[in-house]
C-alpha cells in the first residue's frame, strides 16, 4: 500500500508512534510518505520505501500567524496526486484531521478519492480538543474521517463522552520495537552514575504540566530518605526550571541529574531500576512502555490508559494522581529487596512483550485494508 503519514515531527509520543509505525510499515514492503514541517525526530535512516515531504509555510508581512493548515492541505493534495497514495493516516486530531478532510475534498474535485485514518493520541482529546475554540472542528473531522483509532480503551471512552461522535473508534494501542528497546549491558555507565551501587530511578518526559515533574522530585525525596538512590530526569520542557528549583529546595540536587533531551534513551533505561510516571493525564504512557521493555518496573498514577498498561502489583504499581506518599511507599517496596526488584523487572518485561510491534503492526495493516475497501464501496 502507498500511505501518507502526517504527524508532529517532535519528540512527543504521537510523533514517535507515527514515525515508528511508518518505519515498520516500510520494512514490511509498504511505500511510506511522511508529510511534516520538519524531519521527524526518529526518521534517522535511509530505506528505499521511505519518503519525506517537507511542508514549507510562506511568510508574508500580513500574517500574524502563518497559515500552516493551508500549506499542509496543499502539500497533501500534491503528494496524493503525484505519488498516487492509497491512504492518508494522520496522527493527532488538531489540526491534522481537519486538514486531511480539506485535502480530501480538493482531491475529490480532481476525481481522486483517498480515505483518511485519524489516530487520536491523548491531549488532542483530553486537553486541547475539549476547548470550545476547537470542539466543533475536532468533532466534525473525527466524524468525517474514514477510520478513527485511539491508543487506549480509556481514550476511546473519553472521546465518546466529550464529543458527539457518530463514527466507530477502533482501539489500537501503542507498541514497542524490541530490536531497539531491550536491556543492554551498560555496567560502566551504571558505575559512573551510581558509584556506590545506589538504585537508579528514572523519569522521561517533555516536562509539560500534565507530567507532574515536581511530584517526581517529591517522590524521589521520600525514597532517598530510606534507600540510597539517584534520579535521572531525561527530557526538557516548560516545567524543567521549577522542577530543578524544587530539587534544590528539598536538598536532593546532589542525587538528581537533569540530562536534557536524549536520543539513546534505551541505553539510559538499561541501567535503571524504577520508572516514575505521576502524570495527571496519560492516554497510554508510551514512555512507561519503553521503560518496561528494558526491564524497568513502573510506579505511576492511575489516570487515563495507564491501568491498561501497568498492571498494579505486577509490572509496578498505580496510585491516585498526586498521592506522593503512596507512590513513594510502592517505590520503596519494589526497591528495598533485590529478589523482589528482580521479580518486578521480569514482570514489567513480560507485560511489555504484549505490546510488541509484531503484534500491533498487523492490527494497523488490516484496519487500513478494511477502511480502503469500505471507502471503495461508498463510491
Ligand atoms: O504526552 C506526551 O508527552 C506527548 C503526547 C503527544 O501527544 O505526542 O503523547 C500522547 O501520545 C502518546 C502516544 O500515543 C501516548 O503514549 C501518551 O500517553 C499521550 N500523552 C498524554 O495523553 C498526555
Q: Which key terms come to mind for this protein?
A:
Rossmann fold, 2 domains, about 375 residues, 6-stranded parallel beta sheet, about 45% helix, Glyco_trans_1, alpha/beta, glycosyltransferase activity, binds ligand GMT, elongated
Task: Describe the fold and architecture.
This protein is α/β, with parallel strands linked by helices and 379 residues long. It folds into two domains: 2-175 and 357-378, Rossmann fold (3-Layer(aba) Sandwich); 187-353, Glycogen Phosphorylase B (Rossmann fold, 3-Layer(aba) Sandwich), CATH 3.40.50. 44% of the residues lie in helices and 16% in strands. The protein is built from 15 helices and 13 strands. The chain has helices at 13-27, 68-83, 93-108, 123-126, 135-143, 153-162, 187-193, 213-226, 240-249, 265-269, 286-293, 306-309, 324-335, 338-353, 357-378, and strands spanning 2-6, 31-36, 50-54, 87-91, 116-120, 147-150, 170-171, 199-204, 229-234, 256-260, 274-277, 298-301, 316-319. Strands 3-2-1-4-5-6-7 form a seven-stranded parallel β-sheet, with helices on both faces. It has a six-stranded parallel β-sheet with strand order 10-9-8-11-12-13, with helices on both faces. Helix 9 links the parallel strand 9 (229-234) and strand 10 (256-260). The radius of gyration is 22 Å and the shape is elongated. The model has no long low-confidence stretch (mean pLDDT 94). The structure holds ligand GMT. The site of ligand GMT has 20 residues, from helix 1. Pfam families: Glyco_transf_4, Glycos_transf_1. This is N-acetyl-alpha-D-glucosaminyl L-malate synthase BshA. Residues 189-348 form the Glycosyl transferase family domain. InterPro entries: Glyco_trans_1, Glyco_trans_4-like_N, Glycosyltransferase_grp1, Thiol_BshA. GO terms for molecular function: glycosyltransferase activity.
Amino acid at each position: 500500500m502507498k500511505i501518507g503519514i502526517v504527524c508532529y515531527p517532535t519528540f512527543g509520543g504521537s510523533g514517535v508512534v507515527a514515525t515508528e509505525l511508518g518505519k515498520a510499515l516500510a520494512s514490511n514492503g509498504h511505500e511510506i510518505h511522511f508529510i511534516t514541517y520538519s524531519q521527524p525526530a526518529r526518521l534517522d535512516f535511509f530505506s528505499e520505501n521511505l519518503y519525506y515531504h517537507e511542508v514549507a509555510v510562506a511568510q508574508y508581512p500580513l500574517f500574524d500567524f502563518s497559515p500552516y493548515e493551508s500549506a499542509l492541505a496543499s502539500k497533501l493534495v500534491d503528494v496524493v496526486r503525484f505519488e498516487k497514495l492509497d491512504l492518508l493516516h494522520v496522527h493527532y486530531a488538531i489540526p491534522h484531521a481537519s486538514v486531511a478532510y480539506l485535502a480530501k475534498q480538493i482531491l475529490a474535485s480532481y476525481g481522486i478519492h483517498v480515505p483518511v485514518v485519524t489516530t487520536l493520541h491523548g491531549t488532542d482529546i483530553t486537553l486541547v480538543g475539549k476547548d470550545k475554540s476547537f470542539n466543533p472542528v475536532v468533532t466534525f473531522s473525527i466524524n468525517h474521517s474514514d477510520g478513527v483509532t485511539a491508543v487506549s480503551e480509556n481514550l476511546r471512552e473519553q472521546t465518546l463522552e466529550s464529543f458527539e461522535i457518530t463514527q466507530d473508534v477502533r482501539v489500537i494501542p501503542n507498541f514497542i520495537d524490541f530490536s531497539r528497546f531491550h536491556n543492554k549491558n551498560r555496567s560502566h555507565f551504571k558505575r559512573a552514575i551510581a558509584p556506590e551501587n545506589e538504585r537508579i530511578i528514572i523519569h522521561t518526559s517533555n516536562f509539560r504540566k500534565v507530567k507532574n515533574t515536581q511530584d517526581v522530585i517529591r517522590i524521589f525525596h521520600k525514597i532517598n530518605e530510606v534507600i540510597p538512590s539517584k534520579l535521572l530526569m531525561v527530557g526538557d520542557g516548560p516545567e524543567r526550571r521549577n522542577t530543578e528549583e524544587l530539587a534544590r529546595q528539598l536538598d536532593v540536587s546532589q542525587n538528581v541529574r537533569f540530562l536534557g533531551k536524549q536520543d539513546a534513551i534505551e541505553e539510559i533505561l538499561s541501567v535503571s531500576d524504577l520508572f516514575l510516571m505521576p502524570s495527571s493525564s496519560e492516554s497510554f504512557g508510551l514512555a512507561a512502555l519503553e521503560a518496561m521493555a528494558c526491564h524497568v518496573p513502573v510506579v505511576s498514577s492511575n489516570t487515563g490508559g495507564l491501568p491498561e498498561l501497568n498492571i498494579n502489583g505486577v509490572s509496578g504499581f498505580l496510585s491516585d494522581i498526586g498521592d506522593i506518599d503512596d507512590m513513594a511507599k510502592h517505590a520503596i517496596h519494589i526497591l528495598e529487596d533485590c529478589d523482589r526488584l528482580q521479580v518486578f523487572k521480569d514482570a514489567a518485561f513480560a507485560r511489555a512483550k504484549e505490546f510488541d510491534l509484531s503484534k500491533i503492526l498487523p492490527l494497523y495493516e488490516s484496519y487500513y485494508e478494511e477502511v480502503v475497501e469500505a471507502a471503495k464501496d461508498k463510491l
